[in-house]
Amino acid sequence: MNILAFESTCDETAAAVVRDGREVLSDAIASQVDMHTIYGGVVPEIASRKHVEAIVGLADKALSDAKLTKGDIDAVAVSYAPGLIGAVLVGVNFAKSVALALSVPLIPVHHIRGHIAANYIAHPDLEPPFVCLCASGGNTLIADVRSYTDMEVLGATRDDAAGESFDKVARVLGIGYPGGGPMDRLAQGGDDTMYELPRSHVEGHPLDMSFSGLKTAVLNLAHNAQQKGEELDYPGLAASFQAAVSDILVPRTMEAAKRKGDGKLAVAGGVGANSRIRGDLEIACKEAGVKLYLPPLKLCGDNGAMIGSQGYYEYLSGHTAASDLNAYATRDISLG
To answer: What pTM value is reported for the model?
Structure first.
């Protein structure tokens, strides 16, 4: 089954063709990072306009790269939630028009479910049940993946997403947007005990997380140093920040894996590309006897292939949509 998939929830426009949920025939992506960098973050209206400009050409490229014609497409999948609402609407409306024109089923895909499905592409042997840490610029949660389409949130952030915190701290340090890559590179060789930073705990909810206090602590450090004319150890601060984020994410993820997941743990989303977090998870899983599935870096960020992969399993479960499919800025992963 050949699925033409679209992703436009934030600042990447993507189109891909995926066969039977696991084989990626093409994956075309247009990034807007350079444009949003000058603002220090994504500007929603600009993102929406750029999606409109890019999506038609990317659809053609995805078909061409897959060496297929429009008549070879069996279904259209699209990320319909969560995300920047204007951006999501571009993908949803375009996908609806393509499905109508080709007279094929339209498959709505939850964006975070798509990130989880990136692991199916990377690891042909991975099948549910497993636990998945999903951490990105907009979402941070731990999911119990009971089947390809039956999922439950075990724990989540109460405020900022982990990736958003990386971006905000990187902006304060003046090292660019998005912040994940520059922070990771800056932290290499830095002393992760240089600065004492908070590790949050949500009373009564051991698997939930909070990153606002950590982010604020770094901002205060930077501002106080500036006011006093003191120099910060940037590599040390970046390393200390990464260690704090990992100390928030990893123990909770391992506790969830102890409770659920049949001894399997996967990672999804852009923060899953961070070398400190990946390394700490590898150590923790080895000690606990849990099998760890890490996606390659190219599948950590937003892409169309992950939407096509999850779209296949949504289709098998009978999850299709009519032409009245709407876009949503927020939506629980358990609702699909």
So the answer is: 0.94
